[in-house]
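Working notes for the structural subgroup meeting. M.R. asked for a predicted model of this chain before we commit to crystallization trials. I am recording the input and output together here so anyone reviewing the notebook later can reproduce the run.

Input as submitted:
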Amino acid sequence: MELNPIQVTKSFASELADTPVNRLSLGVQSMLDDDLLYLGRRHRAADIPQKLQILRDAGFTNISADFIYGLPNSHNKKVCESLSRLLDIPFEHISCYLLELAEDCPLAADIPLLPDDDESNRQYQLIRDLLEEHGFIQYEISNFALPGRESRHNLLYWESRECLAWGASASGYYKGRRYQNPADLKLYSQYIASGRTGGDTDESAQEESDYIMMRLRLVKGLDYAEYQARFGKCFTKGREHGIRKLEELGFIHLDASGLRLLPDAFFISNAVITELL
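Returned structure, recorded in token form:
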């Protein structure tokens, strides 16, 4: 379950502990108050240790923190300070995301102030190094966990396994069919009343590309035998040119069992993976 730090109170945590929820993701975002003010967050950095302790006292032992980098005018020193403060607090898992500002969002005027790709990449590599120094294992491009604390929930998506979706706007994947429930509550209620499960989306033609994209986000990469069993064909056939090009650039590693991205390709993963779709 995802939590906003301002939601966390002793009574809330106590009631939450009586539910089947056994893993929490806390939207920390930054341990610098000026960042939090800019992002419109209502909590402050000093609140996080107290909020985490409340959750611990309620019995939760598997808690992740969200962390954002690449804010306008940001630089390595500032990212290092924020992440170092976060690492002083005992989380089992940390998810790190690059800030993206859409043209129609309230902060769109600051898009020119965002760090360029080179600076954002430097921040990303700094994050990887700091987390590794503190015992975190990178198992996905944006996700790091202490040993054995990888998110089983997120792995469902990255490994293209089946998951059912409940609730308005929720997305699911079942029996080779991807679907998304209507975002409109009234329409979703009508679906429930009629016994329907989700919208009428049928993305079977996109299943293969989704599989490749998700698998190559994982540090362990794509397994040839699993791909063959799922799609009935050899992964490398027809992709020889792209594979050779990416291997020469030092972006991928391949052997007899599969193919994975190398660390130099993590930050530009979308562009690299597109060469293999």
